[in-house]
Amino acid sequence: MAGQWSSAQRNGAARSASRNARPFCVAENDGVVCGFAFGGKILWTGLSTSSEVSSLYLLEAIKRRGVGRALFGRLLAELARRGFTSTGLWVLTGNLPARRFYEAMGGRTGDTRIERKDEVVLDEIAYLWDDLAAAGPSRG
Ligand SMILES: CC(C)(COP(=O)(O)OP(=O)(O)OC[C@H]1O[C@@H](n2cnc3c(N)ncnc32)[C@H](O)[C@@H]1OP(=O)(O)O)[C@@H](O)C(=O)NCCC(=O)NCCS
């Protein structure tokens, strides 16, 4: 009937609303936030993936204990749950620890770019996850 939505349209609208909210995941240690990760629809990266990882950061003291793996896995799972099919991010080309981490998380390298912000030149490389449904928390 005219004016009524099909279930496919309703599901599409629900996914669209869900995609507009940006998941923000935190890691806590003894009740104190020691890391965070967030992302969502493409806002800043300009990547051709359906979503982006906007930021991932841990305090120095809790690095190399699997916290980043768990946090990143939660973010990817949440993006997939909200209907995104792929994701990606930019990282400084010289940030070798983070690059090794993203490779361990199953990311593949994409384009490189040079970003100029005032006097600062940022040399960056993209990491991409083409299939979020296959990139769950247990992967890596
Ligand atoms: C990148 C970051 C989130 C990784 O988190 P983490 O909790 O230290 O990583 P994990 O302990 O979960 O490591 C998972 C795997 O990633 C790889 N890895 C992580 N850190 C690494 C390092 N410094 N060198 C080499 N490999 C590394 C390893 O394969 C590791 O598995 P293993 O410990 O069994 O060898 C963390 O180092 C960080 O916050 N860095 C500063 C902020 C930053 O650079 N963010 C990215 C900006 S785009």
Descriptive report:
The chain is α+β, with helices and mostly antiparallel strands and 140 residues long. The chain has a single domain (7-134), classed as Gcn5-related N-acetyltransferase (GNAT) (Aminopeptidase). The protein has 3 helices and 6 strands, in the order αβββαβαββ. A 3-stranded antiparallel β-sheet has the order 1-2-3, covered by helices on one side. The chain has a 3-stranded antiparallel β-sheet with strand order 4-6-5, with helices on one face. β1 and β2 (32-40) form a beta hairpin. It starts with 6 loop residues before the first helix and ends in an 11-residue tail after the last strand. The mean pLDDT is 89. It binds coenzyme A. The site of coenzyme A (COA) has 18 residues, from β3, α2, β4 and α3.
Largest β-sheet summary:
3 strands, antiparallel
- Physical arrangement of strands within the biggest beta sheet: 1-2-3
Helical element count? 3
Radius of gyration: 17 Å
Q: Secondary-structure element sequence?
A: HEEEHEHEE
Question: What is the level 1 CATH name?
Answer: Alpha Beta
- Find the count of extended strands (DSSP E, 2+ residues): 6
**CATH fold assignment:** Aminopeptidase
The rounded distance between the terminal residues' Cα atoms is 48 Å
Report the sheet-strand fraction: 25-35%
Please identify which CATH superfamily we are dealing with.
Gcn5-related N-acetyltransferase (GNAT)
Low-confidence stretches: none
Note the overall shape.
globular
Bound molecules: coenzyme A
Structure class: alpha+beta
Average pLDDT level = 89
The residue fraction in helices comes out at 25-40%
In the CATH hierarchy, the architecture is 3-Layer(aba) Sandwich
Overall tally of structural domains: 1
